[in-house]
Every structure is written in C-alpha cells, then in structure tokens.
Amino acid sequence: xxxxxxxxxxxxxxxxxxxxxxxxxxxxxxxxxxxxxxxxxxxxxxxxxxxxxxxxxxxxxxxxxxxxxxxxxxxxxxxxxxxxxxxxxxxxxxxxxxxxxxxxxxxxxxxxxxxxxxxxxxxxxxxxxxxxxxxxxxxxxxxxxxxxxxxxxxxxxxxxxxxxxxxxxxxxxxxxxxxxxxxxxxxxxxxxxxxxxxxxxxxxxxxxxxxxxxxxxxxxxxxxxxxxxxxxxxxxxxxxxxxxxxxxxxxxxxxxxxxxxxxxxxxxxxxxxxxxxxxxxxxxxxxxxxxxxxxxxxxxxxxxxxxxxxxxxxxxxxxxxxxxxxxxxxxxxxxxxxxxxxxxxxxxxxxxxxxxxxxxxxxxxxxxxxxxxxxxxxxxxxxxxxxxxxxxxxxxxxxxxxxxxxxxxxxxxxxxxxxxxxxxxxxxxxxxxxxxxxxxxxxxxxxxxxxxxxxxxxxxxxxxxxxxxxxxxxxxxxxxxxxxxxxxxxxxxxxxxxxxxxxxxxxxxxxxxxxxxxxxxxxxxxxxxxxxxxxxxxxxxxxxxxxxxxxxxxxxxxxxxxxxxxxxxxxxxxxxxxxxxxxxxxxxxxxxxxxxxxxxxxxxxxxxxxxxxxxxxxxxxxxxxxxxxxxxxxxxxxxxxxxxxxxxxxxxxxxxxxxxxxxxxxxxxxxxxxxxxxxxxxxxxxxxxxxxxxxxxxxxxxxxxxxxxxxxxxxxxxxxxxxxxxxxxxxxxxxxxxxxxxxxxxxxxx
Length: 750
Prior knowledge:
The protein contains 23 helices and twelve strands.
C-alpha cells in the first residue's frame, strides 16, 4: 500500500475529547432511557415479568440492529455517504421528540398486550434509541479515518462509552430518580439527545474535512498510521475467530444476569443489589479497553485461581454458614475475575480497524443471546438459578492455557456420580458423612489449583465440585418442592420446631428466594392457625377480632397470597377475593400436600391472577369492606402499588367505611414513610403497629402493619381496643409523596 507523506498524524487532544464525549453521552442516554421508560409503562401494564421481558427483547434487538446498521453503513459506503445517510436518520428521529408516550395510548384489556407494547416502544423511543445504539461502533469507525495518531487502534474510546454507562447506571437511582420527576426526566433526556446529535455532527464534520472531498472507499485509510500492524492480523476473519469472540462476549452477558438472580434469590433480598454486578461488568470494559490491559490481563489470569479457592470451597455449600455480606463478597470477586478474564481476552483479540464494526456486531449479538438465554430459556429448563454456576464454569473454559491433563477428566465425572448419589440419599445418610464430604470438597478445591493452566481440566474439576456442593446444600435444606418462574425461585421446605410441650414438630415453609412468605403447622388441630406475619396475637388477628361483630358479610380483598394463611380468618357469609401475580404461588397454596389453609378455610375464595393494580381497576367501585395489601416484603417492591394514584384507586374500590391494611414488614426499606406522607397528602386516617411478640409462641414473628380509612372514626375501635399497640402514623417531612411520576427507593433505606 502506498503512503502519503503529506498526511502527518494529528496529535490534537481535542479530537479525542470530541469523539470520547460523543460516546460517553450516547451510552449515558441509553442507560437512563431504559429505567425511565420502564417507570412510564409501570402504571399502564403493571409489574408482570412479561412486560419487562418484552422491553428487554426490544432494547437488545434495537441495539443489535443499530450495530448491524453501523456495520453495513461503514463497510458499504464512502465516508461522505455515511455522513449523509446518518444525518438523514437523525433528522427523522426528531419526530419522536420530546420523549413521551403516544397520545391516548391505552393497552388492550381483552388480548395479549405484547404487540401493543412493542409498537408503543417503537413509536415512543424506537428511532432515538436506534440512533443511540449506532453510536459506539460508528463513531469509533469514523475515528479510525480522521488521521489522529491513535486512529490505528480506536478501541480505547470504548472505555469512554462504558464510563458513560457506568455513571448513568449509578446516577439514575441515586441522583436522577430521587430529585427529578418523570415528566422532567423525559424533557431532560430530549435535551441530552439534541446535545448528542450536535456532538455526532461535530464528529461528522471532522471526518468530512479529513476526507478533503476525495471519494474514500471503506477500508482505505488516508494516514500511514492505518498501515500499522493490527492487533489481529487476519485480512479475512475465520469462523473460529468469530465464534471465539461470540463465546467471550456471551458468557459474561449471561453470567451478569445469572449472578444478579442468584444473589437476590440465594443470598440476600436487598433492593438495588443488582447495581453492584452491573457496575463491575461495565467497569471491566472500561479497564480492558484502556491502554493498561496489556499489563492488567495477565495479572487477572494469574490471580483468578487464587481468589477462586475460597469461592469454590464455600460459596455453594450453605449460605447460613457465613454472614450474607461474606457470601456476597465471595461471589462478587469470582464474578469480577470471570468477566475480567473473558473481556480481557476479547480486548486482546480485537481486530484491525477494517473489522471494527464486525467485532462490535458480534459482541452485541452475543449480548442479545445471553439476555435471551437467561430470560427465556433458563427459567423453563432449570428449577433454580443454575445458569450462574454453569457460566462460571464456561468462563473457566475460556481461560488462556494449554490442553488439559487427563486426571481431572477422570475425577470430574466421578464427582458428578457422587453428587447424583447424594441427591438420591436420605438426610440421615448425608448427616453421617457430612463432615467427610465437606472436608473432601475443600481438599479437592485445593487440587483444582494445580490445573489452573489447563482450562478444560480446571473447569471440569471446578464444575464437579460446585454441583456436588449444590447437591449437599439442596438435601440439607429439606426442600420438598422447588420450581422457578419469571418471578424467581419458589421453594417449599420442611423444618422443625419445639412445640408447647417441648416435643419436636415438623412444619412447612414457603420461600421466595431468601424471603419467607408463610408457614403452616401440620397437625390437624393446629393446621388452621394463621402463623408468621398473620398470627392471631399479631395486628391482623387483632383487626379481625375487634371487628368480629361487624364483619359477618364483608367483602374482603387480599393482594398477595403467600401460603394462604389469611384465608383462615374467613367466615361463611364473607366473600374473599385473592389477588396474586405469580400462578405458581396459587398452585402451591392450593396444593394440600404443601399447604392446606385455602382448602380448609376458604375453598370458595375467588382467585385473580395478574398485577394487583390492573386487576383492582376492573372491580366495581365501593365493593370492598377490607382490602389487604401484602406485596412488599421482598427486595423487588412494586412501587406502583404505593403511589398516591394507587391509594386513590384503593379507596375508590372501598366502601365509604372501608379499611385499607398494608403489610409493611421489610428487612431493608422503611415503607411506613411512603404511606405516612401519602396518607397526609390525601387526608386519610392511619394507624401503625410494629408488633413484637411478648412471649415465645411457635412461628409468631415480629411484623409491621398499617391500616387506613377515610374517617378516623372507622379506626377508632381498633386504636382503643387494648388488643395491641396501635398508634398514629409518625409524620415525615424529608421527602415528597410518591406518585406515578415520582418514586425514590433510596430515601427509605433503613
């Protein structure tokens, strides 16, 4: 290739700043738009996972199409043509501004809303999101042609893109959401989009100016620096290279979602915990595509087996052995090293700039596949979050190294056979050899370190130990039934208590992840007694006892089924309607082999499956005497059920003297603040009881309840009853009322 001596390389830092600022702004807008539009849709479609799955498929698909567009445009057209086509696309996208839902948009009530949702997403944000999606590969490709002295390797600019994603990720829940309502967020996003378009125009101007009116075909470079040796020397990429890129991007993408599900399901139900793994994921991109990756990547490869030793030995045996934060640290370290090694390999194998858009296209496709696997395949294939340990093992397979030694390939299947035997053993058999099994696992963990330079053997040994530990943990937890839906992992477990006579007694518990949703004693004379949060000594028992003479023919609605314990307060003339979003919860609570509350106490109760707010909107006005809201004890609090508009809906469905009761027990969130402020804003009477058992009664636990009514006289009998310590709600002045336009989870952290 001939050189052009007159084309001296440009060392101006302003060029780097311009292109980096464009990528930073684009990524920030993308990561803000997704939660923003999710909140806009929440009151319309509720909290059904089908809604969020559809949104994620839309986002991932548009991102992939944006990368495909950038690849086609930059490889088929001259730089001038690219600028003209992209300018036309940006001008067309202005039709979607300012950001808003289409006017008079209403989801269908008599059919599946999936296609309505996709069409609404396309009309509202499709074009701007598409433009934002094209920016990362297209702008880097343009930078490769502007004659800067770093144009031969523009991949470091990807760090600016991921820094923007990272800052936007942390800014939304901690800065934007607590201080700016949705209406203002939409306006500010539109302004940010206009700024992005100006930055893109600036990049286009630099590229056009550098072309000097000359027709430059894609692939031709007008700087001698573009003839520098590329990171990958192939002129034509092999299929093996592309598949390697695909695997190195797919595994971390799937691992991110699997890790997020696992820590919220098996470790701790803490709000916003998902931010930590996503932050580490984005941080890994920032690091590996920086100038320091050549030194950092070998260090990560060497350190990974060392830090994995405690993870392999302890992380899957029993989460009760260590504090949850210790387990969390173990898993986060293992996750970080896995994505750093995979992404480090990806960055090390990045191609010459002629293949830049192909490289990013494959990365986006792999990310889409990872999301679809975890969203649509794993919940149907696995009854727990097994895709997480599987992807840890897959990440170890992708480590750089030599061919495997045959020894671990012999040991690993033997360990899996042992795991199968354990899974089919009895708990007594297990307990006899429990110490031996645990010591053996730790010893085998140390053995894995010897095979750290042989990826296949290392991965096989690690996988066998992890699944052996999972088998031990599953059996020791006395799990009777476990199944997984889009809402998470539900498990029915058998546990033991000491009864009133000091004798051991078994009972059943219902868990959603790490959150207990109910329990029932099995003896015939005890099986109708409501337990845990709904006990007779507790606030719900007090309420039903105080209104015992008035509630003979009440219409009662309960949002959140759990094990069905509340149904045992039902009377013959009452009409109960139970609302539950997860069909599997209904199936479990209706199965007498697990829980018999419903079959014994309220066999004729009406059941409504779906989002509670949407279901209640279909009920007649002034229909209920008592409405119980019990959907707030886990980490995923449905905020749309706590807004001012939601409370107005509930009281619209209650009779004038009706009572609204909220179960507020939550380990991490002070939800009473939200209710107090909204009750004050709507001029509602309210009482709270933070109940703590005065004596040691089996399965009677501390629990917090709030009751509301339009008139204080409705609640006065309860306040004066002496049955419990009902008090007026405290007043708070440190945050605004929650509305469909404004919510703020951070402000109510305990």
